[in-house]
Amino acid sequence: MIRIQQLKLPVTHTQEELVEKIAKELKIKPQQITSWEIVRRSLDARHKGDLKYVYLVDVETPMEQKILKRSRHNNIMSTKRQPYAFQPTGSERLKSRPVVIGSGPAGLFCGWLLAKHGYQPLILERGDEAVKRKEKVDAFWSGDALDLSSNVQFGEGGAGTFSDGKLNTTVKDPLGRNRKVLELFVEAGAPSSILYEQKPHLGTDVLIGIVQTMRSQIIDMGGEVRFNSTVTDLCIKNGCLDALEINGSEWITAEAAVLAIGHSARDTFTMLHRQGVYMEAKSFAVGVRIEHPQEMINRSQYGYPYPETLGASSYKLTHQTKAGRGVYSFCMCPGGYVVNASSEEERLAVNGMSYQNRGSANANSALIVTVNPADFAAYHMEGTPAVFDGISFQRHLEHLAFSAAGGKIPVQLFKDFCAGKASRELGDIAPCCKGGYELSNVRELLPDFIGASLEEAIRSFEHKIAGFSRPDSLLSAVESRTSSPIRICRNESFQSSLPGLYPCGEGAGYAGGITSAAIDGLKVAEAICGRFAPPVL
Predict the structure, then answer these.
(1) Which residues does residue 220 pair with via DSSP β-bridges, in sequence order?
(2) What CATH number corresponds to the domain at position 101?
(3) Is 71 in the same domain as 115?
(4) I want to staple 515 with a disulfide (CB 3.0 to 4.6 A). Which of 148, 169, 313, 387 is the partner?
(5) Can you say how many angstroms the Cα of residue 388 is from the centroid of all Cα atoms in its chain?
């Protein structure tokens, strides 16, 4: 197979033109191409009047040897696909089926691989199945009471279900797990374009159907999924995990349990600490959501005019403040919504979400500032272990945000954020929110170093995106759930300090998004399959 790199075409090109370009690059006729596949497609927008797609393409042709022999171009080479391939080698027979705690991407993909190889996993999810969960979230956004077990953070699909569904990752994985994750998403109903887009995304509306399909696949392969099932305690015998308590009343045997609980399962963190499971505080980031007109972002990124087929543009920004703080955009949602992502009473957190069409009027992104254990030590709660100081810091900010607008999302114009005064009226930008909002003073909710860092960064980003620091840009608070403030430490066998308990995914501190969490789920399943043989039930 031949791989061609840096194949460039105008963004308005047709498929026929792409085939002709491939043939021209290889100096053969289009009819001599047996098959071809796009491996990667990215947008080159450096020249605003001349936008191009840049392709990485794999080609099969009977002319391969002749082409390689005569080629003098570094962008043409021989390649061999290395598909993900895993076979269990474990010999220690499980006495009971493995349990996966949590049905976010880490839990789903871990459960899928275990089920695929005959381990008949039991997946426990504290929230509802996806459709019922969406109904409850929509009702909460419309003014109903918050369901503490089924909300934007908890329920089938995990917190990533109510996001933009971005699937790009910086994880380097030569074994092909990343590709396998994308292939499984496609098999579950995702568009095949996610296999090659540089920044693939699904959207909340598509993700809901995908997680349901994956659940059905797991069940068809012998697994089981139970909703409204929270793990409330552990039974430890001879220094190893023996059983799990469900909802404070039921015990199930579990010698191997995957802890894919997500970054907001604070009650579970507390229970694990009480049982002596070793964990550490880790750095994370907090800040705000910022909204701009999507058209403004498009014109800055694409130029004007631009083809509508390009869709809503994204951005990625970083800044190092004069004080040495890192500020960066995170979970950017083109054509998206700022959402009330609360999961505890009288505490408010925000997140960003897009549907597949990315069709709202605004672009939004988290703008966040890195914080470390030294920063949040000042928020230590007496009687609480120091390892939970990050959670105490999050809860402090979330309580202030809730109180500022009576449970609605606090929103402030950037000009008022700089002046430190509450906003009284909107400018030309109207908030695109899921859940009610109220004009407030967001600046006073944040520690001084975070507010100052954000102001400096936003002014700096004006040099990269024209209009980014416009006075009527909207800031919403508080973006506090960017990643887990806890790492549940694991060894080379992927087990915690409690043998039999396998920390996994974002909540355990080993991932930072949908794809990396899914990859970690596969890794943990491989570790279990590498030790154990399937149970005989």
Answers:
(1) none
(2) 3.50.50.60
(3) no
(4) 169
(5) 23
Name the domain boundary from 434, 456, 479.
479
pLDDT tens readout for residues 414-437: 999 999 999 999 999 999 999 999
Residues 432 and 506 in one domain: no
Rounded to the nearest 10°, the torsion over CA 14, 20, 21, 22 is 110
Kind plus residue range of the DSSP H or E element containing 253: strand 250-253
Q: How many helices (H) and strands (E) does the chain have?
A: 13, 26
Return phi, psi of residue 253, to 5°. -65, 135
Q: Are residues 427 and 334 in the same domain?
A: yes
Full 3-state SS string of 314-347: CCCCEEECCCCCEEEEEEEECCCEEEECCCCCCC
Quote the CA–CA distance of 63 and 66 in Å, as a whole number: 5
Per residue in 341-399, pLDDT (tens digit) is 999 999 999 999 999 999 999 999 999 999 999 999 999 999 999 999 999 999 999 99
Q: 309 and 255 in one domain?
A: no
Q: What is the three-class DSSP state of 380?
A: coil
> Which 3 state secondary structure label does DSSP give 414?
helix
For the stretch 381-403, what's the b/e string if a residue is b when 16 or more beta carbons lie within 10 angstroms of its beta carbon?
Answer: eeeeeebbbbbbbbbbbbbbbbe
Residue 330 sits in the same domain as residue 308: yes
Query: What would the pLDDT profile of 222-266 be if each residue is shown by its tens digit?
Result: 999 999 999 999 999 999 999 999 999 999 999 999 999 999 999
CB 394 within 8 A of CB 341: no
| CATH classification of the domain holding 54 | 3.30.70.2700
pTM (2 decimals)? Answer: 0.95
Which two three-digit tokens encode residue 402?
A: 């809730």
Q: Is residue 86 part of a domain?
A: no
Residue 403: which of 454, 448, 444 has the closest Cα?
A: 444
Same domain, 295 and 428: yes
Question: Is residue 141 domain-shared with residue 244, that is, in the same domain?
Answer: yes
Is 399 strand, coil or helix? helix
Structural domain count, the chain = 3
Question: Domain end: 56, 78, 100, which one?
Answer: 78
Domain range holding 72?
2-78
In the sheet with 2-10, reading across from the earlier edge strand, the strands are 35-44, 52-60, 2-10, 76-78
Residue 363 lies in a domain: yes
**Residues 493, 470: one domain?**
no
The encoded tokens of residue 270 equal 């507390």
